[in-house]
Amino acid sequence: xxxxxxxxxxxxxxSTLAWHLTHSLLEIDKSVKLIDLDFQQTLYFVNKIRGxxxxxxxxxxxxxxxxxxxxxIDAKKYDYIIIDVGGFDTDINRTAIELSNKALVPIxxxxxxxxxxxxxxxxxxxxxxDTEFDIVLNNIHPLTKNFSVIKAAxxxxxxLLNTVVRSRKIYKTTLGEGASVFDxxxxxxxxxxxxxxxxxxxQ
Length: 203
Hints:
Blueprint: E1 2-5, H1 14-27, E2 32-36, H2 42-50, E3 56-58, H3 63-71, E4 80-84, H4 91-98, E5 102-107, H5 111-124, E6 132-140, H6 148-154, E7 159-166, H7 169-176, H8 187-201
Parallel strand pairs: 1-4, 1-5, 2-3, 2-4, 5-6, 6-7
């Protein structure tokens, strides 16, 4: 299965989600390839910091290389391919979305992110897709319970997942250390990512 963590807005948590989601799949003994399309190369460098050799992080430079990484002979070795796209609209990012089985779109309750989501949605409308879109509430304040604004923005077009990934320092601190929440004893954070994983792969 190919899952692209997608959004045209930067700073919504795509790289962080892609990294921890990947490690949630490794936890259940799945083989995973990461594809880093973000010009900041976040996942590539985080993986270098990790230095364990457990992950292959590809950095295709054009659409042809991306298609090879996604559907070439080598791709068949992996149970899952996770793609982190950059926060911009390009041909290579659109191709990643179009050729994926699922697109995971993070959204938070901030007004700017809701507006950014609507911009991204208009771009999606221009594509010819068989891709399934799943929206995840991400970086949500621990006390927030009312998601009516987000639900109204998402509407009925795409599926809003039940999982809520809360704003937790551990998601970013572990990323900066080349680790994931699955290298820690924080069961609350691990269970949030496990819930996200299970919703994505068991639908």
